[in-house]
Amino acid sequence: MIPKVSIITVTYNCGDILEGTLKSIFEQSAKIYELIIIDGGSTDSTIRVIKKFEKSIAHWISEPDNGIYDAMNKGIGLAKGDYLLFLNAGDSFNEIDTLEKIPFEKYPSAEIFYGETLILGNEGEQLGLRRKKLPQNLTWKSFRRGMVVCHQSIFVKREIAPFYDLQYKFAADVDWVIKSLKASKQIIFTKTIISNFTEGGFSNQNLIKSWLDRIHILNTHFGIFQCLLSHIFFIFDNVLLKLKIVPLFRTKYL
Question: Which H or E run includes 83?
Answer without folding.
Answer: strand 83-86
